[in-house]
Write a structure and sequence with these properties.
By secondary structure, the chain is mainly alpha-helical. Helix content is 47%, strand content 9%. The N and C termini lie far apart (58 Å).
């Protein structure tokens, strides 16, 4: 009887260790490309290029600190929308965005015109934003991923 209980407990432990509860939810909005060690130099180079794109194209509305303009242009720094809607955020950088969007509990209803960025520039600026101002979003955006949207 003791052996049976030990076997059952062992099986239960093994099954619960393989649970999906601790794995990230990879929905259409949060489909993260995990950053592998071999990708870190590529990511760092992309972030550096993205800083330049941000300075040229985004800084006027979203400001140097990424905090945006209250009630006009949403923040990118510590943005719940950015964290929870990576694909929509990438699409906004690629195609522009209009209509209502709720960021950190505040509703914004303005227009972001398409900026005419290449897929590489969109990937670079997203990698910069995802890793700036306290953001640490584990998503390595690649030009290929951008081209698929």
């Amino acid at each position: 009887m003791k052996n049976i209980i030990i076997i059952i407990l062992s099986l239960f432990t093994c099954v619960s260790c393989k649970s999906d509860k601790n794995k990230p939810n990879l929905t259409a909005q949060n489909e993260y490309a995990a950053i592998q060690d071999q990708d870190k130099p590529k990511l760092e180079a992309s972030i550096k290029r993205g800083e330049s794109v941000y300075s040229d194209m985004c800084i006027t509305c979203h400001l140097p600190n990424g905090k945006g303009v209250p009630k006009a242009f949403p923040p990118l720094a510590d943005s719940d929308f950015l964290r929870e809607n990576q694909i929509e955020s990438i699409k906004a950088a690629k195609y522009g965005m209009s209509g209502e969007v709720v960021v950190n509990g505040i509703t914004y209803n303005s227009t972001m015109a398409p900026l005419g960025l290449s897929d590489e520039e969109v990937a670079d600026v997203m990698n910069y934003i995802n890793n700036s101002w306290g953001n640490s979003i584990n998503n390595f955006v690649t030009p290929q991923k951008v081209s698929e949207l």
